[in-house]
C-alpha cells in the first residue's frame, strides 16, 4: 500500500507540478484533467496533501508575519499562515475566547494557533473541497468530535459534518456567517460573509484574492463572472480575507494590463513594502479592491484595449481573456 501511495503521490506531483509550471504540451493537456480529478475528487489527493504538510511542519517558519485584526469591540480575526502561501483564520469572540476557524487544513498549525491565542474552537467553516483548505477535517473530527464543520453541499469537502446550502445563515458565538455560493474555482465553492460585525468581513477562500481571483478549475468564465458579481454587491466597507497570499503576483499582473491606473500602482507599492518585510497583505477593503482588481473591473475600457479586445465584447469575454493571461503569467520573485 505504501509503495502504491508513494507512486500515486509522485504522479500527482508531476501532474500538478506540471500545471504550475504552465506547460502547454499535449501530454499536459491530457494529463492535467486526470491529475486534477485524482487530486480533487479522490482520497489520493489527501495523501498528496499530507505529504505537503509533512514538508512544512508547524515548527517551520510561517510564510508571512501576521497581526490580529480587531474588527469591532468583541471580534478579532487572527490570520494563521500555513504551507507555502495558505491562510486559515481564527474568528474570535474576545468576550468568550471562543473561535471559529476558516479553512484550517494544517491540523498542527491550527492547534498551535489555538494555544497561542488562548481560545477554544467552537466551529469550522470550509470554503471548498481542495485539500489545502479541507485537508484538516479528518483530524479535526478526531480532536474536536463535537465541533461542527460546515462545507458547501455541492462541493462536499471531505470530513464535513454540516452541509450548507447557498444563502444559509450560520450562527456561532453571536456571529452570523452568511454562506454565498460562488462557483467557478470549484462547482460548490462557498464564501462566508460575516455580516454581524461593523465593518463586515468576507472569507473568500480561493474565489477572490487581493488583486485577483481563483483559477477556473471546474466551471466556465460565465459562471465565474456571476460569482464575482455577487461579491460586488456586498457592502463597500467589507474587509476581504483570502485563502492565499497571492497579492504580490496579482498586483504585478494588474499593472501590466491596467498600466495607467493609479490605484493599481499605489496598491502595488503598498504590497511591495509589506512583502519585502514578509508581512501579510490581508485584509483588503472591497471599495478599494474595486479600483485595482482587474477581475472586478471587467467593464473597464482601458482593460479591453490592453487585452486587445474589441470595444463591443462582453465582460465575460474580458474575464476569460484576463484569466487566460494570468494562467500564463510569471511574477517576479
Ligand atoms: Zn482551491
Automatic annotation (TrEMBL):
Belongs to the metallo-beta-lactamase superfamily. Glyoxalase II family. Its cofactor is Zn(2+). It comes from Amphimedon queenslandica (Sponge). HAMAP family: Glyoxalase_2 (MF_01374). This is Metallo-beta-lactamase domain-containing protein. Keywords: Hydrolase, Membrane, Metal-binding, Transmembrane, Transmembrane helix, Zinc. PANTHER family: BETA LACTAMASE DOMAIN, HYDROLASE PNKD-RELATED. The chain crosses the membrane at residues 27-48. Pfam families: HAGH_C, Lactamase_B. Residues 85-244 form the Metallo-beta-lactamase domain. It comes from the Eukaryota. InterPro entries: Clx_II_MBL, HAGH_C, Hydroxyacylglutathione_Hdrlase, Metallo-B-lactamas, RibonucZ/Hydroxyglut_hydro. Gene3D superfamilies: Ribonuclease Z/Hydroxyacylglutathione hydrolase-like (3.60.15.10). The keyword Membrane applies. GO terms for biological process: methylglyoxal catabolic process to D-lactate via S-lactoyl-glutathione. GO terms for molecular function: hydroxyacylglutathione hydrolase activity; metal ion binding.
